[in-house]
Amino acid sequence: MTAEPILAFFLLRYLRKTLRTTSIFARWDKPLTYAMIGIAILFVLERIFSVQALIIWVWHLIILLIIGISFKKDELHPARSTMLAVLPLALVFFLSDLIKLLPNRLYEAIKDYPDFAIPFAVIWMVAMLIISRKQRKALESERKKTHEEEEQNRIMAARKAELEILVAERTSEIMQQKNELEHALIELRTTQAQLIQAEKMASLGELTAGIAHEIQNPLNFVNNFSEVNAELIEELKKELDTGNKEEAVIIFPKDLPCV
Fold it and tell me: How many independent structural domains does the chain possess?
């Protein structure tokens, strides 16, 4: 019977195909590949040496072992729905060969039961495979959507980081400009204060000059008048020394104010 080798090979191939899209594929790739090669070699040996009666139990053991490992290992969870679909058919094949070991009378009584169970097992398998395929497509679509969302989030995070860097650079430039403006404002205020002080000093200088000028005019008049009086006194002395009193009266009349 060739159904068991085909079923075993199909299960291993399906596991390998299912795990190919996961991160644990590398760890299971070699064991599954070697198992598929071993099944092919065992099938050839069965045909060459005609030891089907013995090897048939090896096929049952391999199939049940594959299904059992799929349910035992958490990382093989994606394949459980397919294994569940195949399990009834594998059990029917196993029971069909197991019945053959019963006594002839009992065997003749129940030998047809597996034949009736095989169509139901096949229908169950097909239905479960269709459901599993739909679920797998839905999961793949969800995974793709999640991947796209993660990629979009990654792009947004990268863009956010770029914007944060840009904002930080712009903030640094603004702070530098602010510091420069504050420094310029301080210099402007200092210059303004210096100009105001210079203007005050200039105004004070002009005021002082005006006051000095106002004071200088009477002083000049007094000085000039004093010089004229001094000259008149000298001339008077000269006339008095010469005895010319009349001329002295002309030079220095009595009503002339004296200093």
Answer: 2
Domain boundary among 94, 127, 148: 148
Residue 126 lies in a domain: yes
* 176 in a structural domain: no
How far is Cα 97 from Cα 53, in angstroms, rounded to an integer?
Answer: 10
Q: How confident is the model at residue 165 (pLDDT cuts 50, 70, 90)?
A: very high
Q: Which domain holds residue 241?
A: 218-254
Contact between 29 and 89 under an 8 Å Cβ cutoff? The reply is: no
CB 65 within 8 A of CB 10: no
Residue 171 falls within a domain, yes or no? no
State how far the Cα of 61 lies from the Cα of 84, in Å rounded to an integer.
16
CA distance 199 to 193: 10
- How many other β-carbons are positioned within 10 Å of the β-carbon of residue 146? 10
- Residue indicated by tokens 């034949």: 115
184 vs 179: CA distance, rounded Å? 8
Question: pLDDT tens digits for 11-53?
Answer: 888 877 777 766 666 677 788 888 888 888 888 877 777 666 6
pTM to 2 decimals?
0.49
Structure tokens at 201: 């000093």
Q: For residue 238, is it within any domain?
A: yes
User: DSSP string of 128-196?
Assistant: HHHHHHHHHHHHHHHHHHHHHHHHHHHHHHHHHHHHHHHHHHHHHHHHHHHHHHHHHHHHHHHHHHHHH
User: Three-state DSSP class for 101?
Assistant: coil
Q: Please, what is the end-to-end C-alpha distance for the chain in angstroms? A: 162
Q: Which of 96, 116, 148 is the last residue of a domain?
A: 148
